[in-house]
Amino acid sequence: MNTRNSIVYLVMLFVSLKAYSQNSAQEELNYAKTLDQRASKIVNTLEIADSAKYNRVKSLIVNQYRELNAIHEGKKAKVGTEETAASRLTLLHSEYLKKLSAELTSEQVDAVKNGMTFNVLAVTNKAYQDMIPSLQPDEKTQINTWLVEARELAMDAGSSEEKHQIFGKYKGRINNYLAKRGYDLQKERAAWNARLKR
User: Pfam families, per this entry (predicted)?
Assistant: First the structure.
């Protein structure tokens, strides 16, 4: 490569790196904005009057999303093992809940969990109770227990699709449980749909 070609190559490389850097900076700004909006939406439901506390809680949520993303991106890039990622998620989950609990009541912590999982727990619980009005107290308790377990796992998922897949798995478990308890879910669903149309 002669001197002139070397200079042209270096100029093109510099321009490419600068464009890449600008794109990366813009992507980071967009990502930060998305996380801020997502966290604000959750924190706004908590009725926190103290602005300093509001900002601390919002920061905790934003940081949690960032840490979760880093772990899941590492899994995609095959950095470390699945076991390493799983143990990092478990530790991150535990630390996050400790930090939230230091700032919030248990009801507010639950509201954060629900916000991070699109309120699927409450919606699904209500749907089962509306669909099967004859559910017994122990059955309602079991359904809620599994949905709470699903929510804990879904909080750490890498995407909304993965969160919904986790809840889907638990809904399957609930449906099997109810079928074993003698409920005809197709019949219950048809009757529920008929009630909704009325």
Answer: DUF3826
